[in-house]
Specification:
Mean pLDDT: 94
Strand content: 15-25%
Bound molecules: 3-isopropylmalic acid, manganese (II) ion
Low-confidence stretches: none
Largest sheet: 10 strands, mixed
Number of domains: 3
Number of strands: 12
Helix content: 40-55%
Strand order of the largest sheet: 2-1-3-12-11-4-5-10-8-9
Oligomer: single chain
Order of helices and strands: EHEHHEHEEEHEHEHEHEHEEHHH
Structural class: alpha/beta
Length: 374
Amino acid sequence: MQHRVAVIGGDGIGPEIVREGCRVLEAAGGRYGFDLDFTEFEIGADRYLATGELLTEDDLVEIGKFRTIYFGAIGDERVKPGVLEKGILLALRFHFDQYVNLRPIKLLAGVPTPLANKGPAEIDFVVVRENTEDFYVGIGGRQTKGRQHAELEVLRSLYSVKFGLDIESDAEELAYQIGVVTREGSRRVMEYAFELAERRQKKVSSVDKANVLSDVYGLWREVFADVAAVHPSVSTEYTFVDAITMWFVKNPEWFDVVVTPNMFGDIITDLGAMIQGGLGLAPGGNINPRGTSMFEPIHGSAPKYRGQNIANPIATVWAGALLLDSLGEHEAAGGVVGAIEQTIADGVVTRDMGGAASTSDVGDHLVRLIGRRS
Ligand code: IPM
Ligand code: MN
Protein backbone atom coordinates (compact mmCIF):
# COMPACT_ATOMS: atom_id res chain seq x y z
CA MET A 1 0.00 0.00 0.00
CA GLN A 2 1.30 3.45 -0.88
CA HIS A 3 0.11 6.75 0.55
CA ARG A 4 0.92 10.05 -1.12
CA VAL A 5 1.41 12.97 1.25
CA ALA A 6 1.88 16.69 0.46
CA VAL A 7 4.41 18.28 2.83
CA ILE A 8 4.45 21.97 3.72
CA GLY A 9 7.23 22.73 6.22
CA GLY A 10 6.45 26.44 6.22
CA ASP A 11 8.28 28.97 8.39
CA GLY A 12 10.47 29.12 11.48
CA ILE A 13 10.95 25.71 13.07
CA GLY A 14 8.34 24.20 10.71
CA PRO A 15 10.74 22.57 8.23
CA GLU A 16 12.96 20.96 10.90
CA ILE A 17 10.13 19.46 12.92
CA VAL A 18 8.33 18.18 9.82
CA ARG A 19 11.60 16.61 8.63
CA GLU A 20 11.69 14.51 11.82
CA GLY A 21 7.99 13.75 11.45
CA CYS A 22 8.51 12.41 7.92
CA ARG A 23 11.42 10.22 9.09
CA VAL A 24 9.28 8.76 11.87
CA LEU A 25 6.34 8.09 9.55
CA GLU A 26 8.67 6.41 7.07
CA ALA A 27 9.99 4.19 9.84
CA ALA A 28 6.40 3.32 10.76
CA GLY A 29 5.75 2.42 7.13
CA GLY A 30 8.73 0.08 7.17
CA ARG A 31 7.57 -1.56 10.34
CA TYR A 32 3.85 -1.82 9.57
CA GLY A 33 4.07 -2.50 5.87
CA PHE A 34 3.17 0.55 3.78
CA ASP A 35 5.02 3.13 1.71
CA LEU A 36 4.82 6.87 2.03
CA ASP A 37 5.50 9.11 -0.93
CA PHE A 38 6.17 12.69 0.22
CA THR A 39 5.96 15.69 -2.12
CA GLU A 40 7.31 18.94 -0.71
CA PHE A 41 5.77 22.35 -1.36
CA GLU A 42 7.82 25.51 -0.79
CA ILE A 43 5.10 27.70 0.67
CA GLY A 44 5.63 30.31 3.36
CA ALA A 45 7.31 33.57 4.28
CA ASP A 46 10.42 33.16 2.13
CA ARG A 47 8.45 32.69 -1.05
CA TYR A 48 6.01 35.43 -0.07
CA LEU A 49 8.84 37.90 0.46
CA ALA A 50 10.51 36.91 -2.79
CA THR A 51 7.46 36.77 -5.08
CA GLY A 52 4.47 38.20 -3.20
CA GLU A 53 2.67 34.85 -3.47
CA LEU A 54 0.86 33.29 -0.52
CA LEU A 55 -1.11 30.39 -2.03
CA THR A 56 -1.48 30.34 -5.80
CA GLU A 57 -4.24 28.73 -7.84
CA ASP A 58 -1.58 26.32 -8.99
CA ASP A 59 -0.66 25.38 -5.43
CA LEU A 60 -4.30 24.62 -4.66
CA VAL A 61 -4.71 22.50 -7.77
CA GLU A 62 -1.52 20.54 -7.08
CA ILE A 63 -2.17 20.09 -3.34
CA GLY A 64 -5.76 19.16 -4.12
CA LYS A 65 -4.47 16.00 -5.81
CA PHE A 66 -3.50 14.70 -2.36
CA ARG A 67 -5.79 13.34 0.33
CA THR A 68 -3.32 14.29 3.03
CA ILE A 69 -1.16 17.29 3.92
CA TYR A 70 1.55 17.26 6.57
CA PHE A 71 2.00 20.83 7.74
CA GLY A 72 4.69 22.40 9.94
CA ALA A 73 3.98 25.99 10.94
CA ILE A 74 3.49 29.42 9.46
CA GLY A 75 4.50 32.85 10.78
CA ASP A 76 7.56 35.03 10.39
CA GLU A 77 8.74 38.20 12.07
CA ARG A 78 9.38 39.89 8.70
CA VAL A 79 5.70 39.70 7.75
CA LYS A 80 2.84 41.58 9.42
CA PRO A 81 0.83 39.28 11.75
CA GLY A 82 -2.19 37.80 10.02
CA VAL A 83 -0.90 37.87 6.44
CA LEU A 84 0.62 34.38 6.38
CA GLU A 85 -1.87 32.96 8.88
CA LYS A 86 -4.86 34.06 6.83
CA GLY A 87 -3.26 33.77 3.41
CA ILE A 88 -1.87 30.27 3.90
CA LEU A 89 -3.05 28.31 6.95
CA LEU A 90 -6.65 29.52 7.12
CA ALA A 91 -6.84 29.61 3.32
CA LEU A 92 -5.94 25.90 3.19
CA ARG A 93 -8.45 25.01 5.92
CA PHE A 94 -11.20 26.92 4.12
CA HIS A 95 -10.33 25.92 0.56
CA PHE A 96 -10.34 22.22 1.38
CA ASP A 97 -13.38 22.66 3.64
CA GLN A 98 -11.60 21.00 6.57
CA TYR A 99 -14.53 21.50 8.85
CA VAL A 100 -13.27 19.43 11.77
CA ASN A 101 -10.30 20.60 13.78
CA LEU A 102 -9.48 17.57 15.89
CA ARG A 103 -7.34 18.25 18.95
CA PRO A 104 -6.75 15.40 21.39
CA ILE A 105 -5.98 16.55 24.92
CA LYS A 106 -4.26 13.51 26.32
CA LEU A 107 -1.59 13.40 28.98
CA LEU A 108 0.92 10.77 27.92
CA ALA A 109 2.58 8.51 30.48
CA GLY A 110 5.62 10.18 32.04
CA VAL A 111 4.71 13.74 31.04
CA PRO A 112 4.32 16.24 33.89
CA THR A 113 1.14 18.32 33.97
CA PRO A 114 0.78 21.60 35.86
CA LEU A 115 -2.48 20.27 37.36
CA ALA A 116 -2.03 18.94 40.89
CA ASN A 117 -3.24 15.39 41.54
CA LYS A 118 -4.13 14.66 37.91
CA GLY A 119 -2.54 12.06 35.70
CA PRO A 120 -3.08 10.23 32.39
CA ALA A 121 -6.30 8.67 33.74
CA GLU A 122 -7.83 12.11 34.32
CA ILE A 123 -6.59 13.98 31.25
CA ASP A 124 -7.84 12.17 28.17
CA PHE A 125 -10.40 13.90 26.01
CA VAL A 126 -10.76 15.26 22.48
CA VAL A 127 -11.72 18.75 21.40
CA VAL A 128 -13.62 18.85 18.10
CA ARG A 129 -13.37 22.46 16.96
CA GLU A 130 -15.55 23.75 14.14
CA ASN A 131 -13.03 24.99 11.58
CA THR A 132 -14.76 27.00 8.83
CA GLU A 133 -17.24 29.42 10.42
CA ASP A 134 -17.80 31.71 13.42
CA PHE A 135 -15.54 34.76 13.70
CA TYR A 136 -13.10 33.20 11.23
CA VAL A 137 -15.26 33.90 8.17
CA GLY A 138 -13.50 37.22 7.68
CA ILE A 139 -16.52 39.50 7.29
CA GLY A 140 -15.84 42.89 8.72
CA GLY A 141 -14.35 46.25 8.16
CA ARG A 142 -13.19 49.51 9.54
CA GLN A 143 -15.14 52.67 9.14
CA THR A 144 -13.22 55.30 7.29
CA LYS A 145 -14.44 58.55 5.89
CA GLY A 146 -16.54 58.22 2.81
CA ARG A 147 -16.97 54.45 2.84
CA GLN A 148 -20.39 52.88 3.12
CA HIS A 149 -21.09 49.54 4.69
CA ALA A 150 -24.52 47.96 4.81
CA GLU A 151 -23.83 46.71 8.34
CA LEU A 152 -23.26 50.27 9.48
CA GLU A 153 -26.98 51.01 9.35
CA VAL A 154 -27.32 49.00 12.53
CA LEU A 155 -24.22 50.46 14.14
CA ARG A 156 -25.26 53.99 13.27
CA SER A 157 -28.41 53.87 15.31
CA LEU A 158 -26.74 52.00 18.15
CA TYR A 159 -23.87 54.43 18.45
CA SER A 160 -25.91 57.56 18.13
CA VAL A 161 -28.12 56.45 21.00
CA LYS A 162 -25.24 55.23 23.13
CA PHE A 163 -22.54 57.84 22.60
CA GLY A 164 -24.24 60.51 20.56
CA LEU A 165 -21.77 59.68 17.80
CA ASP A 166 -22.08 60.26 14.12
CA ILE A 167 -19.98 57.29 13.05
CA GLU A 168 -19.51 58.55 9.54
CA SER A 169 -17.96 61.84 10.45
CA ASP A 170 -14.22 61.77 10.02
CA ALA A 171 -13.67 62.28 13.72
CA GLU A 172 -15.01 58.83 14.55
CA GLU A 173 -13.41 55.46 14.06
CA LEU A 174 -14.68 51.97 14.58
CA ALA A 175 -14.16 48.43 13.44
CA TYR A 176 -16.48 45.45 13.36
CA GLN A 177 -16.20 41.79 12.55
CA ILE A 178 -19.05 39.35 12.24
CA GLY A 179 -19.39 35.74 13.33
CA VAL A 180 -21.49 33.41 11.21
CA VAL A 181 -22.93 30.06 12.32
CA THR A 182 -25.02 27.95 9.97
CA ARG A 183 -27.23 24.96 10.68
CA GLU A 184 -25.35 22.74 8.25
CA GLY A 185 -21.92 23.97 9.38
CA SER A 186 -22.80 23.13 12.97
CA ARG A 187 -24.57 19.87 12.17
CA ARG A 188 -21.71 18.29 10.27
CA VAL A 189 -19.07 18.98 12.93
CA MET A 190 -21.41 17.87 15.72
CA GLU A 191 -22.19 14.68 13.82
CA TYR A 192 -18.44 13.98 13.69
CA ALA A 193 -18.18 14.64 17.44
CA PHE A 194 -21.06 12.30 18.30
CA GLU A 195 -19.71 9.51 16.10
CA LEU A 196 -16.34 9.90 17.81
CA ALA A 197 -17.99 9.79 21.24
CA GLU A 198 -19.81 6.59 20.30
CA ARG A 199 -16.37 4.96 19.91
CA ARG A 200 -15.14 6.48 23.21
CA GLN A 201 -16.85 7.21 26.54
CA LYS A 202 -20.15 8.30 24.97
CA LYS A 203 -20.26 11.84 26.26
CA VAL A 204 -20.28 15.12 24.32
CA SER A 205 -19.96 18.56 25.91
CA SER A 206 -20.97 21.54 23.79
CA VAL A 207 -19.28 24.93 24.23
CA ASP A 208 -20.95 28.27 23.56
CA LYS A 209 -21.74 31.70 24.94
CA ALA A 210 -25.45 31.58 24.26
CA ASN A 211 -26.13 33.69 27.34
CA VAL A 212 -24.71 36.72 25.50
CA LEU A 213 -24.28 35.90 21.79
CA SER A 214 -27.73 34.40 21.66
CA ASP A 215 -28.28 34.51 17.89
CA VAL A 216 -25.21 32.66 16.69
CA TYR A 217 -24.84 30.33 19.65
CA GLY A 218 -28.60 30.00 20.10
CA LEU A 219 -28.61 28.34 16.68
CA TRP A 220 -25.56 26.26 17.67
CA ARG A 221 -27.51 25.00 20.72
CA GLU A 222 -30.60 24.15 18.71
CA VAL A 223 -28.57 22.11 16.27
CA PHE A 224 -26.76 20.39 19.14
CA ALA A 225 -30.10 19.30 20.61
CA ASP A 226 -31.18 17.95 17.20
CA VAL A 227 -27.97 15.98 16.64
CA ALA A 228 -28.06 14.67 20.22
CA ALA A 229 -31.60 13.37 19.64
CA VAL A 230 -30.39 10.99 16.94
CA HIS A 231 -27.55 9.69 19.15
CA PRO A 232 -29.46 8.49 22.21
CA SER A 233 -26.57 6.41 23.58
CA VAL A 234 -24.43 9.53 24.05
CA SER A 235 -24.90 11.74 27.10
CA THR A 236 -24.67 15.49 26.57
CA GLU A 237 -24.18 18.76 28.36
CA TYR A 238 -24.00 22.45 27.51
CA THR A 239 -21.13 24.50 28.88
CA PHE A 240 -20.34 28.17 28.60
CA VAL A 241 -16.88 28.89 27.31
CA ASP A 242 -15.80 30.83 30.38
CA ALA A 243 -16.90 28.01 32.67
CA ILE A 244 -15.26 25.27 30.63
CA THR A 245 -11.83 26.89 31.03
CA MET A 246 -12.36 26.48 34.76
CA TRP A 247 -13.47 22.84 34.49
CA PHE A 248 -10.53 21.94 32.20
CA VAL A 249 -8.29 22.91 35.11
CA LYS A 250 -10.39 21.64 37.99
CA ASN A 251 -12.02 18.46 36.63
CA PRO A 252 -10.55 17.43 33.27
CA GLU A 253 -11.76 13.86 33.92
CA TRP A 254 -15.34 14.99 33.22
CA PHE A 255 -14.66 15.37 29.53
CA ASP A 256 -14.72 12.85 26.72
CA VAL A 257 -15.53 14.77 23.51
CA VAL A 258 -15.90 18.56 23.54
CA VAL A 259 -17.49 20.19 20.48
CA THR A 260 -16.91 23.90 20.10
CA PRO A 261 -17.35 26.83 17.74
CA ASN A 262 -14.18 27.94 15.99
CA MET A 263 -12.88 30.82 18.06
CA PHE A 264 -13.66 29.38 21.48
CA GLY A 265 -12.01 26.19 20.25
CA ASP A 266 -8.87 28.12 19.36
CA ILE A 267 -8.68 29.53 22.86
CA ILE A 268 -9.54 26.45 24.92
CA THR A 269 -7.14 24.19 23.02
CA ASP A 270 -4.13 26.30 24.04
CA LEU A 271 -5.29 25.73 27.62
CA GLY A 272 -5.75 22.05 26.77
CA ALA A 273 -2.21 21.91 25.38
CA MET A 274 -0.86 23.21 28.69
CA ILE A 275 -2.64 20.62 30.80
CA GLN A 276 -1.34 17.85 28.53
CA GLY A 277 2.23 18.99 29.14
CA GLY A 278 2.82 21.99 26.90
CA LEU A 279 2.55 23.27 23.35
CA GLY A 280 5.55 21.16 22.36
CA LEU A 281 3.33 18.09 22.67
CA ALA A 282 -0.07 19.06 21.28
CA PRO A 283 -1.10 17.77 17.82
CA GLY A 284 -4.05 18.65 15.62
CA GLY A 285 -5.81 17.53 12.48
CA ASN A 286 -7.85 19.65 10.05
CA ILE A 287 -10.21 17.10 8.63
CA ASN A 288 -12.51 16.90 5.67
CA PRO A 289 -13.75 13.31 5.94
CA ARG A 290 -14.42 13.18 2.18
CA GLY A 291 -11.63 15.44 0.95
CA THR A 292 -8.11 16.62 1.67
CA SER A 293 -7.14 16.71 5.34
CA MET A 294 -4.16 18.44 6.96
CA PHE A 295 -2.21 17.51 10.07
CA GLU A 296 -0.08 19.92 12.08
CA PRO A 297 1.22 20.70 15.55
CA ILE A 298 -1.03 23.26 17.22
CA HIS A 299 1.94 25.45 18.12
CA GLY A 300 3.35 28.11 15.82
CA SER A 301 6.61 28.67 13.97
CA ALA A 302 8.71 29.95 16.93
CA PRO A 303 11.05 31.93 14.62
CA LYS A 304 13.58 32.62 17.35
CA TYR A 305 14.41 28.89 17.54
CA ARG A 306 14.62 28.42 13.77
CA GLY A 307 17.54 26.37 12.47
CA GLN A 308 18.97 25.57 15.91
CA ASN A 309 17.82 21.95 16.10
CA ILE A 310 16.36 22.52 19.58
CA ALA A 311 12.60 22.60 18.94
CA ASN A 312 10.46 19.77 20.27
CA PRO A 313 9.26 17.63 17.34
CA ILE A 314 6.81 15.56 19.40
CA ALA A 315 3.67 17.58 18.58
CA THR A 316 4.45 17.19 14.88
CA VAL A 317 5.23 13.49 15.19
CA TRP A 318 1.98 12.98 17.10
CA ALA A 319 0.15 14.92 14.37
CA GLY A 320 1.78 12.39 12.05
CA ALA A 321 0.11 9.62 14.07
CA LEU A 322 -3.26 11.35 13.52
CA LEU A 323 -2.37 11.47 9.83
CA LEU A 324 -1.76 7.71 9.80
CA ASP A 325 -5.06 7.18 11.57
CA SER A 326 -6.85 9.16 8.85
CA LEU A 327 -5.24 6.89 6.23
CA GLY A 328 -6.56 3.82 8.03
CA GLU A 329 -3.13 2.83 9.36
CA HIS A 330 -4.42 2.50 12.90
CA GLU A 331 -1.84 0.04 14.15
CA ALA A 332 1.01 2.21 12.91
CA ALA A 333 -0.62 5.28 14.49
CA GLY A 334 -0.75 3.48 17.83
CA GLY A 335 2.84 2.40 17.35
CA VAL A 336 3.98 5.99 16.82
CA VAL A 337 2.20 7.22 19.96
CA GLY A 338 3.70 4.28 21.89
CA ALA A 339 7.16 5.23 20.64
CA ILE A 340 6.59 8.83 21.78
CA GLU A 341 5.76 7.53 25.26
CA GLN A 342 8.85 5.32 25.29
CA THR A 343 11.05 8.21 24.13
CA ILE A 344 9.77 10.32 27.00
CA ALA A 345 10.30 7.42 29.45
CA ASP A 346 13.87 7.09 28.12
CA GLY A 347 14.44 10.76 28.88
CA VAL A 348 15.25 11.67 25.27
CA VAL A 349 13.43 15.01 25.37
CA THR A 350 14.15 18.58 24.31
CA ARG A 351 14.82 21.46 26.67
CA ASP A 352 11.20 22.63 26.88
CA MET A 353 10.56 19.28 28.62
CA GLY A 354 13.63 19.61 30.84
CA GLY A 355 15.96 17.51 28.70
CA ALA A 356 19.02 18.16 26.59
CA ALA A 357 18.19 16.24 23.41
CA SER A 358 18.11 18.03 20.06
CA THR A 359 15.25 17.92 17.58
CA SER A 360 17.04 15.29 15.51
CA ASP A 361 18.09 13.27 18.61
CA VAL A 362 14.38 12.83 19.41
CA GLY A 363 13.71 11.85 15.78
CA ASP A 364 16.62 9.37 15.78
CA HIS A 365 15.39 7.77 18.98
CA LEU A 366 11.82 7.44 17.68
CA VAL A 367 13.05 5.92 14.42
CA ARG A 368 15.16 3.38 16.32
CA LEU A 369 12.29 2.42 18.63
CA ILE A 370 9.83 1.98 15.76
CA GLY A 371 12.34 -0.01 13.72
CA ARG A 372 12.97 -2.43 16.58
CA ARG A 373 10.67 -5.40 16.10
CA SER A 374 9.03 -6.55 19.28
C1 IPM B 1 -4.36 27.57 15.63
C2 IPM B 1 -3.78 28.93 15.33
C3 IPM B 1 -4.50 29.53 14.14
C4 IPM B 1 -5.96 29.70 14.49
C5 IPM B 1 -3.89 30.86 13.65
C6 IPM B 1 -2.41 30.77 13.41
C7 IPM B 1 -4.59 31.38 12.42
O1 IPM B 1 -3.84 29.74 16.46
O2 IPM B 1 -4.25 26.69 14.75
O3 IPM B 1 -4.90 27.36 16.71
O4 IPM B 1 -6.37 30.73 15.05
O5 IPM B 1 -6.72 28.77 14.22
MN1 MN C 1 -4.58 28.71 18.23
